Amino acid sequence: MKIIRTLSVDWQAFYFNSEQYNMGVLKSKLNVRNDTAKANRQEMLELINQLEKNMEESRFQGKEHHIARARKRKKLLARERIELVLDEDSPFLELLPLAGLKGKGFGAGGTSVSGIGLVQGKLCVVSSNVGTRKGGSVDYATMAKALRINDIISENQLPSLNLVESGGANLPDQARCFNIGGRSFRDITNRSKKGLTTISVVFGNATAGGAYVPGMSDYAIFQKQSAKVFLAGPPLVKMATNEVATDEELGGAEMHSRISGVSDYLAEDEYDGIRIARDIMRHVKVTKPHFVPAQNIDEPLFSQEEILSVVPANPKLSFDIRELIMRIVDGSEFSEFKPEYGNTIVTGWTKIHGYPVGIIGNNGVIFSESANKGAQFIQLCNKNDIPILFMQNTTGYMVGKAYEEGGIIKNGAKLINAVSNSEVPHLTLMVGNSYGAGNYGMNGRSYKPRFLFTYPNAKIGVMGGEQLAGVMEIVQRASGRSKGEDYDEEKGAAIKAMLIADAESKASAWYSTSELWDDGVIDPRQTRNYLGFSLAIVYNQPIKGTTEYGVWRH
After folding, report:
1. What is the residue-wise DSSP string for 67-122?
2. What is the pLDDT of residue 231?
3. Backbone phi, then psi, for 275, in 5-degree steps?
4. How many CB atoms lie within 10 A of CB 142?
5. In terms of C-beta density within 10 A (0-12 exposed, 13-18 middle, 19 or more buried), how is residue 475 classed?
6. Are 307 and 45 in contact (CB under 8 A)?
7. Per-residue pLDDT for 172 more than 80?
8. Residue 376: which residues within 8 A CB-CB, separation 6 or more?
9. DSSP E strands: which ranges in 218-322?
10. Average pLDDT, the chain
């Protein structure tokens, strides 16, 4: 055996003097107790207060007399059903709770509650119709929410459990709901083909197209004397065929359990239906976790409360994304990649709740060097089968003559190419600005991240309101000059103010979450928990990257 000769070096200093060499532990450069930080914290708390108000609206389960009538009939409410079907003390990652917040439909969350939790120790998507709100009828936002939930089920290879009580499509919305409603039934049977189980428990109405939800599920459980599942109710049957029949005769639980065979199990009451669903889940085959973290996980060295002082409530103000990273990752450890190059994008590897993850975060506008660095980092994460977290805070790619000559389009396209063709799971967190193609290069909604969450201060759009209004003013002035007309300053100022107000309104986190551009607006102090649970979900199946990309220019 060859012995390596001993050198006269200080081995102890080499291995343990990590502070001198900054061996991966991030250090804060901010004073979170100064006046600026305190003022920012107060502004963020005001935004969180608005978030809580919006969340309270989403938890609305119907008017008092509707709830009283449900209680009289010994019915549980939607969220109570979810609580009973989940394992005791299971976390519940509620998704899209503010869908439809700013729309003309039924309000925040629509008439369904959906999320991911543990049933018999298995990760499972649970969705519950809010039967006491508009009779559980489905408006456009609720249907769009259901389709996004279907995507989450398929992408993450999860079983699903539907707690059904719905009056079907809201008639004024039927034209918009018709085609996407059909897709939801296709999704159920496609998942069944792939081995992803769907269980439906019907507690009340499941009429017209809604009858196909239990009809296409792998398992259907109907509650005795309560479930009513039919394509057409008594009035429509009378009109169509002149046949007279009762609800029970057409679609009662006992008829479907004993005669039609649509129902697989006849439940005595709601509790029995939930018990049967949980019993079925014991036997449902699911993928074994691809990775289980170690038991001992180091918490961040900095308080998550400090995030409210670190991240500006006003996204026009800049901050170092590392200050956020160090408050959400294990032990505040971050192995940064290319720290001296392309410094408006920060890249590196870390762990969150024990799960390995690569992070790409913005420190402002994206230059060519930053885009190249990000593309290379995505390749490395794919080569090593590591999921990627994108932390968005950018006004987009740098513009101007010098940057166009320097190939900003070519290099920006390279980053978008890498994002588009990457095959490891992506998570996205909106923490500030998200404008223009920067949204695309940083894995916005259209690039299909597994999960996307937003801070209440975030802004998203093609460009900022002031920039949009300024561009329109330049165009209008040029148009006037070409026609030999004077520019109306007073009218122009009014139009400019209107454009800014409209753009700012539609750039807000409340508008974007209403339009389902994210999976939820979150309290920044809960970031670590949301990301940790999301990573547990994506690590529930094997992760395999790619080495193949589209053509990009060098």
Report:
1. HHHHHHTTPPPHHHHHHHHSPTT--EEE--TTTTTTSSSS-TTTTEEEEEEEETTE
2. 83
3. -60, -45
4. 29
5. exposed
6. no
7. no
8. 338
9. 219-223, 228-230, 265-267
10. 90
Residue 255 CA from chain centroid, whole number: 40
Structure tokens at 139: 């408006």
For residue 293, report the phi and psi dihedrals to the nearest 5 degrees. -65, 165
Count of H helices and E strands in the chain?
22, 15
What are the CA-CA distances from residue 505 to residues 101, 186, 459, 511, 516 (Å)? 13, 36, 9, 7, 16
* Inter-residue contact 152 to 117 (CB < 8 Å): no
Q: Which residue has the higher pLDDT, 174 or 131?
A: 131
Distances from the Cα of 25 to the Cα of 330, 331, 345, 534, angstroms: 10, 7, 19, 24
* 140-155 pLDDT, tens digit each: 999 999 999 999 999 9
**Identity of the amino acid at 17:** N
Distance CA 440, CA 177 (A): 28
Radius of gyration of the chain (CA): 27
**What are the residues whose beta carbons fall under 8 Å from the beta carbon of 113, sequence distance 6 or more?**
78, 79, 82, 94, 97, 127, 128, 130
Question: Has this prediction a pTM greater than 0.70?
Answer: yes
The count of C-alpha atoms lying within 13 angstroms of the C-alpha of 278, restricted to the half-sphere facing its C-beta, is 19
pLDDT at 494 over 80: no
Cα separations in angstroms, 528 against 9, 110, 189, 533: 41, 27, 35, 9
